UniProtKB/TrEMBL annotation:
Coiled coil: none annotated. Keywords: FAD, Flavoprotein, Monooxygenase, Oxidoreductase. Its cofactor is FAD. Pathway: Cofactor biosynthesis; ubiquinone biosynthesis. NCBIfam families: Ubi-OHases (TIGR01988). It comes from Blastomonas natatoria. Belongs to the UbiH/COQ6 family. Residues 8-320 form the FAD-binding domain. This is 2-octaprenyl-3-methyl-6-methoxy-1,4-benzoquinol hydroxylase.
């Protein structure tokens, strides 16, 4: 339980990374306070807004270990297979994890609400919502946050989980390497005439990939999917301003019609696509997780999963430190977290960047090279296994929170 205005950990940001970290740290007996401008009503709202996330197998395991999976399972759609194609040309590269599955698709609103309710009910977590911050500071002994209403909170460690525009990262003086893809991601949800068979489809075009990701059937039994369509910046406004009928027709054409007629059933949203990488993930009494530390292209749907792997690793490090009686803000243990996570984050950023650039090359010659490469991958068991393990999040040194309990 937090002692007055002081806590062990101060988490800035109540998104999935911030709230899951709070729950993970509370399991280790650490006192946690979460501060965000968002309102409790927004966090608790379960209305579907068209946005959904692909949770890798290990991310879903993390929700199971946090005690949330049972309440979410009914609304989670398993991803059993991934099918990759170069436009509408014949031949696709299929990845099938067998009985283990690749992961699940889950509406963002349900994930957010479940995390919020679990954090709200945890005695070791204090949620300070609808809060405007007037001042932040860090010294050798503590991190301090003063709200606009005069309340002052301190902690041994502050964690930046605010997203790409992270004031905590700026407070630490951590640099950010970034560039724009000059693309936008358009997101919505659709119904289809034909079922998706729990398959995630990734269709690559020179302008950008079209991802059709499986969701559970709607209340009328119609197959549903989440759409993430990457388009050039200059064409984004035209695509988002289309009527639902015209946008559905464009999706049907871009998918080659193999799912039948596609009909949008949710609002469309879009965001600029950038690659961002913080130069460090830690500083004295400061750590970064999720989008505050890195943002990658959505081409592989791994952004949220990378953030949850940050959370699991930081929880492991701080939990072990707590058992040894270490100060949560001890820089030596924070650097262990950074060493654990930096390579994975950098490799995933590089892989998604290369994929986007490779499939963005127009013309017959690049297409031929891509198809030959896809055939080689399809015939090489070790490469296929590596890609499947990366998609499931099971490669590398896994934190305890991502592994099945004995």
């Amino acid at each position: 339980m937090t002692q007055g205005n002081h806590s062990d950990i101060l988490i800035m940001g109540a998104g999935p990374a911030g709230l899951s970290l709070a729950l993970a740290l509370a399991r280790h007996g650490l006192s946690v306070r979460v501060i965000d401008r968002i309102t409790p009503d927004t966090l608790a709202d379960t209305a579907f807004d068209g946005r959904a996330s692909a949770l890798a197998s290990t991310s879903w395991q993390m929700l199971q270990n946090l005690g949330l999976a049972d309440s979410l399972w009914r609304d989670a759609c398993p991803i059993d297979r991934i099918a990759v194609s170069d436009g509408l040309r014949k031949g696709s590269l299929d990845f099938d994890a067998g009985v283990d599955g690749m992961g699940v698709m889950l509406p963002n609103s349900l994930l957010r609400s479940a995390l919020y309710q679990a954090a709200r009910d945890d005695a070791d977590i204090d949620l300070v919502m609808a809060a405007d911050i007037a001042h932040r500071s860090v010294d050798a002994h503590r991190a301090t946050v003063i709200l606009a209403d005069g309340r002052e909170f301190t902690a041994s460690l502050t964690v930046g989980a605010e997203g790409r525009a992270s004031p905590t990262r700026d407070l630490a003086g951590i640099g950010l390497s970034q560039w724009s893809y000059r693309q936008r991601g358009i997101v919505t949800a659709v119904t289809m005439e034909r079922g998706h068979q729990n398959t995630a489809f990734e269709i690559f075009y020179p302008d950008g990939p079209l991802a059709i990701l499986p969701l559970n059937d709607d209340d009328e039994g119609r197959p549903m999917a989440s759409i993430v369509w990457t388009v050039p910046e200059g064409k984004a406004d035209a695509w988002t301003s289309l009527s639902d009928r015209a946008f559905g027709a464009a999706l049907t054409e871009a998918s080659g019609g193999f799912l039948g007629q596609i009909t949008p059933v949710a609002p469309r949203s879009s965001w600029p696509l950038t690659l961002c990488q913080a130069s460090d993930m830690v500083a004295p009494r400061i750590a970064l997780v999720g989008d505050s530390a890195h943002i990658i292209h959505p081409i592989a749907g791994q952004g949220l999963n990378l953030g949850l792997r940050d959370v699991a690793a930081l929880a492991d490090v701080l939990g072990e430190g707590a058992r040894l009686g270490l100060d949560p803000g001890d820089l030596a243990q924070l650097q262990r977290y950074q060493q654990w996570r930096m390579l994975d984050n950098t490799m995933m950023a590089s892989a998604t960047d290369v994929l986007n650039r490779l499939y963005g090359l127009p013309g017959k010659a690049p297409s031929l090279v891509r198809r030959i490469g896809m055939q080689l991958v399809g015939r090489t068991g070790l490469i296929r296994r590596f890609i499947i393990d990366e998609a499931r999040g099971t490669s590398g040194d896994l934190p305890e929170l991502l592994m099945a309990s004995d």
